[in-house]
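Record type: monomer structure entry
Structure origin: computed from sequence
Chain ID: A
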Amino acid sequence: MRARIEVRNLKIVRRDFLYALLTATSSLSADGKTMYVIVFNKSESSDIRTRIQVKNSSCGDAKVWTVNAPSLSSTDAKSEVASETVSGASVVREGNDYAVTLPPHSMSAVEIQRK
């Protein structure tokens, strides 16, 4: 038995999935008073709004710094310099969570003070 399939006007659309686009790591200062979260947004074109959830409610103010380049393939050569685009901006606190918007192809550092 043989089968034949004809496809006309085939269009393949690439979709970005949020779970695959964010990569993060965190650490705590030696004195335990400051938490650091580094987040990479690997999207080529989309801001991603996300929350950093903190289980302990003893956290206070938070700030964010962001470094960005023209594209994901930028190599920081002379013509494509990565630069700091956000410098110590306040992060919105929502309960025990911190809401941040991460620009495409960026690395952001969030500093959260513990009380």
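Annotation 1: The mean pLDDT is 83.
Annotation 2: The chain is about 5% helix and 50% strand.
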